[in-house]
Amino acid sequence: MATPPRRPTNPMEAAEAVFKPVKKPAPAPPREPSTAPNVRELVSIRIDRAVLEHFQEDGPGWQDRINDALREVVADKPRG
């Protein structure tokens, strides 16, 4: 039985195979926000160090305290 050649038989095809464009995967569809009430969303925000220290100084639960403070601001904002 004959062994296959170590090199491709057509060097032009081998060279083109190296430079073929890579197909990019389709982007994931945007995620729909949850419609369930009182469901929390994981987000990343940048806040000043002083603000973070203020909420963390009372210990665990600082993220809930930030959420409560933001909820008060939203509730106090006039609609219109």
In short:
This is BrnA antitoxin family protein. It comes from Mesorhizobium salmacidum. The protein has three helices and no strands.
Strand fraction equals: under 5%
Q: What summary fits the major beta sheet?
A: none
User: From N to C, what is the helix and strand string?
Assistant: HHH
Radius of gyration: 29 Å
| Molecular shape | elongated
The structure class reads: mainly alpha
The helix tally amounts to 3
Mean pLDDT: 84
Number of DSSP-assigned strands? 0
Secondary structure: helix percent: 25-40%
Low-confidence residue ranges: none
**Distance N to C terminus:** 84 Å
InterPro entries: BrnA_antitoxin (IPR025528)
Protein name: BrnA antitoxin family protein
Pfam family, one: BrnA_antitoxin
Region (Disordered): 20-39
What do you see in this structure?
- By secondary structure, the chain is an all-alpha fold.
- Helices cover 39% and strands 0% of the residues.
- It has 3 helices and no strands.
- The protein starts with 10 loop residues before the first helix and ends with a helix.
Task: Output the keywords.
39% helix; mainly alpha; 80 residues
How is the topology of this model organized?
Blueprint: H1 11-18, H2 49-56, H3 62-76
InterPro entries: BrnA_antitoxin
Protein name: BrnA antitoxin family protein
